[in-house]
Amino acid sequence: MYPNKDSIYAEPIGEVGAFKFDEKVAHVFPDMIRRSVPGYSAIISAIGLLAGRFCQDRSFCYDLGCSLGAATLSMRHHIQAEDCRIIAVDNSEAMIEQFRKNLLQDSGEVAVDVNCADIRDIEINKASVVVLNFTLQFIPVADRKAFLNKIYQGLLPGGILILSEKLRFSDPRQQALQTDMHHEFKKAQGYSDLEISQKRSALENVLIAETFVRHQQRLMSVGFSSAEVWFQYFNFASIIALK
């Protein structure tokens, strides 16, 4: 099911550069994400179920930071609402190119627009479902509140934001434990210590994790009436925010 194995960091690299969603990553992304993010497949499945529940007739569903489109395709196969459309956006041309190929092989009937753009520049209108599946963590912290406010303003009454993120913990003991357990998870998936170390270096200052409390406070500050964790596996969690 995952023909292209992730071995990007399997050999020693003299100077590890910043992580980029380039062609190399797009080529192995399904394997990489499955072996790197605990519970990823469960989150993708649940996004489809939640979209089926919350998608409203004549509305839009947004998958912002869609990568290869896993969340979009999950939504596409669960939405029953009439005359709705999924807007999928990612700023990686390599990801978008592969996603368009994946879409051609998909049997779903809900219309999908695939866009290569910065998600901060996208207008959010008549949205009943917005998905940020491990996306906000790559946006500069200073831009996050304004971006979430734009999403909130574009959501219809009764709309939902699904926000999945890698978490940081305020208690140093919890931070150390959760980080160690994530590394153990990756080892169990076949990654070596070298791979784990080099990828961690590549993501430093690229992926900026925050605590759940900080996420919750920010979501409530832009207007969401409720924001709670529905799924967590070590230091990876997904939050449901309701308008």
Automatic annotation (TrEMBL):
The keyword S-adenosyl-L-methionine is assigned to this record: yes
Broad enzyme group: transferase
Keywords assigned by UniProt, alphabetized: S-adenosyl-L-methionine, Transferase
Residue ranges constituting the Methyltransferase domain according to the UniProt record: 63-159
Alphabetical list of InterPro entries matching this protein: CmoA, Methyltransf_25, SAM-dependent_MTases_sf
Its EC number(s): 2.1.3.-
Recorded family membership: Belongs to the class I-like SAM-binding methyltransferase superfamily. Cx-SAM synthase family.
Record-given protein name: Carboxy-S-adenosyl-L-methionine synthase
Organism: Methylomarinum roseum
